[in-house]
Protein: SseB protein N-terminal domain-containing protein
Organism: Paracoccus subflavus
Amino acid sequence: MTALDDLAPVPFHDADARQRARMLSRLADTELAVALVAEPAGDTIELRMFPLEGGPVALACDAEDRLAGFLGGPVAYAAMPGRVLAGLLKTQGSGLLVNPGQPSEMLLDPAMLDWLTAALSAAPQATDARLRLTPPAPSVVEALAQPLAERLGDMRGLIAGAALAGTGAGHVVLIAGADPARQPAIAKALAETLAFLPFQPGGVDVSFTDAALPATVLQFDLSVPDEPASQPRPKGPPILR
């Protein structure tokens, strides 16, 4: 099971819009092995295209052995993040078949890839951390808390704390203890995550602070739990408290 498989308790095309968006968000940051016509020649690659009823598609898997297994033997491939592959295919007007035969199988047509690349171009909206902060609305917590926890889990070591708070007009994701040089990249990553999630009235902004996070807001626990050395497990998303 891979990270994409873990997000597919039901097949992608049977899932609701929220679950599909979470899978597409993870796909963007997943390194994919995409089938090529031949081994790369320097910086030049030619994607191997497969004719389907809806038009030609490229074939990619989140593990090279999955790609070889599906095609029945060794295959020329290139490794690239899903976001890069989506942009490349958008320029060609082609679709993408991901992980065929696996729990996370996805067939993305050109329109879906257009939507994906548009979501990945989301720009962060900065806000003032000195706003009067309130507890987040329960509906916002239900919609955003778990996906944000998963994304913030990737940022352990880069930030000291994170919280979700109301601002009166909308909501804000507060980030504490981030290196100023890394703040633009962190804000962009969070903006992308929010772009894949249901729109919330008043919007959701991103703010950085060096102050202690208020006790009344929803804080994400970024500590790494102690685990027995004999039973290592991948780090999971932050725990909500």
Remarks:
- The chain has a mean pLDDT of 87.
- The chain has two domains: 3-120, 138-221.
- DSSP finds seven helices and eleven strands in the chain.
